[in-house]
Design a protein that fits this description.
This protein is of the alpha/beta class and 973 residues long. Helices cover 55% and strands 8% of the residues. Among the domains are: 126 residues, Serine Threonine Protein Phosphatase 5, Tetratricopeptide repeat; 212 residues, Rossmann fold (3-Layer(aba) Sandwich), CATH 3.40.50. Strands 6, 7, 8, 9, 10, 11, 12 and 13 form an eight-stranded mixed beta sheet that branches. The two termini are 51 Å apart. 58% of the residues are buried. Keywords: Membrane, Plasmid, Transmembrane, Transmembrane helix.
């Protein structure tokens, strides 16, 4: 299979996300051909089905064909076309075998009469009927013969021939898409569009363009599909059925490219109105109800369910707490409501399978989010099993085709997921049921020649055997699981489908972990390498292929691999393991894997690619630095904390502390809370010392021996919201010994120290927060910001451009920003950093562009426009002196890194919590005075400023609350 299948199978990743509904909508989208002059036109995304409702609203199929009959063949039209007409009636009733019998008789009669034109037309209908039954060895020859006859025929008018040819090309594309040949389908629909154009049939051209968009979606080319449909949406045709087809398809692609709801508007300059998936699909649903088209109503409902599910997943991921808030859960409820409506209102087994599978998948993915699970009576588990029975009943009504096949695989996979979610039902046999379904799916995939489906089925069958092995402790089941997974992997390699292959590499690694760790490492490494290629190549082509930590357990794969790499035999010394040297290549790989995970988080947060600061860049800088610099990479696993240390020009070493993950996170969270309270010296020192013992103490002798002056931390997520400067060794804070910086993914290519003379600074302040700010955020007046900016202005060697208060608007700031290059941009204003881009913002004065004063992360492009396009003129340092991180959000520092990336800054200094602005003013004043001194790095200048407060004679700012909040990320030189 060629590369196009790779693109097509990207959609199958949705099996682990939105369930089969979206996948079916993409894999077998509307393979029904509609005559060019039908009174109503179905979208070609409708699933091929033989239940009558699928065809309601499609117009009079027979009369429309009769109107196209060429006059010179009238002698064959009366009795033979009666057969064609009766066959279509049978087809509409789902009586496919009877339709095939009649159409075959008609085709034979046309052949005997020498009427090649209508023989070709009837053969195309035969191909479509065989397609519905999954009889490909008859469907494909029928459409091939139809097209060949049309090449040879000169009967009828040119318009007649062109219309019949265009419909045959349309049906050919349908067959190709249903057999996994999306690239060929796209070509067929391009030809159909040209043929309709020659026939003067603009409606046919539009239908072909819609079909082309579905091929593009199946190929993974979502932006191209969205652009195509967007152009059609801007110029909707007068025919309402065509409008409906465009609306429903465009609503889908808007979801796929990430424009979900009103706060994520797509409004390029070329478009006349803003568009998002919810709005467009709701418009489509209203039109479908007006046209009384049950098929389109249920399709719109499923699509809206998918979009609301995507919104729920997005908002849940951005919540700081593990349990989503009621307003977030409302999106989940909305998705379930739409799925349930579709299931109740359709008679089509295909549509019912779509909606039921989506319900089942959503329930499985969010069991723990919605309500507590009772060990004796798990309501949602029972509901999932009930849905499984309904799906199985619908599957029995479908012929062998890709819809039925992938539905079976989805159902098997969902049952496997159910078997893994505690608490399990008593005497649960779900893994056995899954295995039975998947065994059938393997055979059916072989029959259809669908190697991708076969790979999925084999791989999940291997997973089923692995889960049965866990229940029965049977080694032979493990061996069977290994064999099946290997077969699945080989198939994925054959069809060049890395999106499938990484799963089986990972599964092989997990299966081998206990008995063959070296082979497990090789397989984990293959999974990791494959994921990295996908991340760098595809992550930002669309939102569905970004690595969601809920839906696609990529984070789990990365962490498992790093965990395995750090499992050498270590001699225990009570709780704390002794520092040892390990295989340097394995330590390096573990460090690399966790760094890649960090970059994945940042890129997901930004929803855009960004220049990556690799560990090799960091190591090169530390090796060449005049100030000895060490790099620490702490990682939290389920049962321990691992720390990998690199000293300049030396081998890596690591050590570990045995500690439950929950205990470590609780200590970190308490330390973070204590740091923000003024009378917590003892608690701060107690927890600060605990964390110091985990991270620093085992390497203390090596640090002293290497005369280390600066420590760069590559932190696992839970550690990022606490200042390493405040760790305590029993006598001193870490900042008293070392300058500290955090690597959060900012570009470190060609790093340079700040100039110590003629330093140009753009400084803006807002003392009074705008009154229009919403009740969710309450910000006090910043009394000392004017003094802060005045102090910067008075610093020797600094040239300052100031913007204050009401003049600090987005547009005026951007104007000043572009007047001349600045090494430092200093913003003394309230703001917040969060793992939710919508809650990452700074405050400016209210203006026409920013009505509430909140410049959100997405608007940073507007603030810093022009400069980010010229990396040679990049900001060296962005200082955000009055901001804070969102409470309880352990990924909030992504907001700091995101702000720096959006601003085009090489480094940033920002505060982790809101602090007394008088202490902030004093610290900033000392920082600027220090940074202008010869050969003082950013990290050392910040350290000196923090020490000045810590060691002040008046003792007013001794508590870390006042000096530890400031965090330096990125270039520390």
């Amino acid at each position: 299979m060629q590369l196009p299948l790779l693109r097509q199978m990207k959609r199958l990743l949705r099996f682990l996300g939105l369930g089969i509904g979206t996948t079916l909508l993409i894999l077998v989208l509307s393979l029904i051909s509609i005559p060019s002059n039908a009174k109503q036109i179905l979208s070609h995304r409708h699933p091929p089905d033989f239940i009558p409702p699928i065809f309601k609203g499609s117009g009079d199929l027979v009369s429309s064909l009769q109107s196209n009959l060429p006059a010179q063949t009238s002698q064959s039209t009366s009795p033979t076309l009666d057969l064609v007409q009766q066959g279509k009636i049978n087809y509409q009733k789902g009586q496919l075998e009877q339709a095939i019998t009649l159409w075959q008789r008609a085709a034979d009669t046309f052949a005997a009469q020498g009427d090649r034109l209508h023989q070709a037309m009837t053969l195309s209908y035969l191909a479509q009927a065989y397609q519905q039954l999954g009889i490909w060895d008859k469907a494909n020859p029928a459409i091939a013969q139809s097209l060949e006859l049309l090449k040879q025929s000169n009967q009828g008018t040119t318009s007649d021939r062109l219309h019949i040819l265009a419909e045959a090309q349309t049906i050919q594309g349908s067959l190709q898409l249903d057999q996994g040949q999306a690239s060929d389908a796209f070509t067929s629909w391009q030809l159909a569009a040209k043929t309709f154009q020659l026939a003067g049939d603009q409606a046919g051209v539009l239908r072909s363009q819609i079909n082309q968009s579905q091929a593009l979606v199946t190929l993974g080319l979502y932006k191209r599909a969205n652009n195509l449909l967007g152009s059609l949406y801007e110029k909707l045709p007068p025919e309402e059925p065509l409008q409906l087809a465009i609306l429903l398809n465009y609503g889908e692609t808007l979801r796929l490219v990430g424009y979900l709801q009103a706060d994520q508007l797509l409004k390029p300059q070329t478009l006349q109105r803003s568009q998002n998936s919810v709005a467009v699909l709701e418009e489509g649903l209203k039109l479908a109800q007006k046209l009384q088209s049950p098929v389109d109503i249920t399709k719109a409902q499923i699509s809206l369910g998918n979009t609301y599910r995507a919104i729920y997943q997005q908002q849940k991921r951005l919540q700081p707490n593990p349990c989503p808030q009621p307003e977030v859960l409302a999106y989940r409820s909305k998705a379930l409501q739409y799925y349930q409506q579709a299931a109740q209102e359709t008679d089509s087994p295909t549509t019912k399978i779509q909606s039921l599978s989506n319900q089942q998948s959503l329930l499985l993915a969010t069991q723990s989010d919605y309500e507590p699970i009772n060990a004796d009576n798990t309501q949602q588990t029972q509901e999932v099993l009930a849905i499984a029975s309904q799906i199985q009943g619908q599957l029995d009504r479908l012929p062998l085709n890709r819809i039925a096949l992938y539905a079976k695989i989805q159902l098997g996979y969902n049952l496997l997921r159910l078997d893994q979610i505690p608490p399990k039902l008593k005497d649960s046999k779900t893994s056995n049921q899954a295995a039975q379904l998947l065994e059938v799916a393997v055979k059916q995939a072989q029959t259809l020649g669908d190697q991708a489906a076969q790979s999925y089925a084999l791989g999940y069958l291997g997973q089923a055997y692995a889960q049965q092995q866990q229940n029965n402790n049977a080694l032979n089941l493990t061996n069977q699981a290994l064999g099946l997974t290997t077969q699945a992997l080989n198939l994925a390699k054959t069809i060049n489908a890395p999106e499938i292959a990484y799963r089986w590499f990972w599964q092989l690694g997990r299966l081998d972990r206990a008995n063959n760790p070296e082979r497990a490492i090789k397989n984990y490494n293959e999974a990791y390498n494959t994921l990295e290629l996908l991340r760098k190549d595809l992550a930002f082509d669309n939102t569905d292929l970004q690595f969601s930590f809920e839906e696609h357990p990529v984070e789990q794969a990365y962490r498992e691999f790093a965990d395995l790499l750090l499992q050498p035999q270590i001699v225990a010394a009570k709780e704390l393991k002794q520092t040892i040297e390990a295989d340097d290549s394995k330590l390096q790989k573990a460090r690399e894997v966790m760094r890649s995970l960090q970059m994945t988080e940042l890129q997901n947060f930004l929803q855009q690619p960004c220049a990556e600061a690799s560990l090799q860049q960091i190591d090169k800088i530390t090796d060449e630095s005049d100030s000895p610099t060490a790099t620490f990479s702490p990682i939290i696993f389920g049962d321990r904390i691992e720390v990998i240390v690199r000293l300049p020009n030396q081998k890596l070493f690591h050590y570990q502390t045995d500690l439950p993950e929950a205990t470590a996170k609780a200590t970190i969270a308490q330390f973070q809370r204590d740091l923000q309270e003024p009378y917590t010296f003892d608690a701060v020192k107690e927890n600060g010392q605990k964390i110091y013992k985990w991270l620093i103490e085992p390497a203390q002798k090596q640090l002293e021996s290497a005369q280390i002056k600066t420590i760069i931390f590559v932190l696992d997520a839970p550690f990022r919201n606490i200042p390493m400067a405040a760790l305590y060794d029993g006598e001193h804070y870490l900042i008293e010994k070392y300058a500290v910086s955090v690597a959060l993914g900012l570009d470190l290519s060609n790093p340079q120290p700040l100039p110590n003379a003629d330093l140009k600074v753009l400084a803006a302040s807002l003392a009074n927060p705008p009154q229009q700010i919403d009740d969710k955020f309450k910000f006090a007046k910043l009394i000392h910001v004017d003094e802060e900016l005045n102090a910067i202005q008075k610093t020797a060697g600094v040239t300052t451009t100031l913007i204050r208060d009401n003049k600090f608007t987005l547009d005026l700031f951007n104007q000043k920003f572009n007047d001349s290059p600045f090494q430092i941009v200093h913003l003394a204003t309230h703001g917040q950093f969060s793992s939710n881009p919508q809650d990452t913002f700074i405050l400016t004065a209210v203006s026409d562009l920013v009505s509430d004063g909140k410049v959100r992360l997405k608007d940073f492009d507007a603030m810093f426009r022009t400069r980010v396009l010229n990396r040679a003129d990049a900001i060296e340092l962005l200082i955000l002196s009055a901001c804070e991180t969102a409470s309880g959000d352990d990924r909030a520092t992504l907001g700091i890194a995101g702000a720096a990336v959006k601003a085009g800054a090489r480094s940033a200094i920002a505060s982790l919590w809101s602090l007394d602005d008088e202490s902030s003013q004093k610290l900033i004043e000392i920082f600027y005075k220090t940074i202008t001194q010869s050969q003082t790095s950013r990290a050392e200048a910040l350290r000196q400023a923090q020490l000045a407060l810590l060691q002040a004679k008046d003792g007013l700012y001794t508590h870390p609350l006042y000096w530890a909040a400031f965090l330096l990320v990125g270039n520390w030189l």
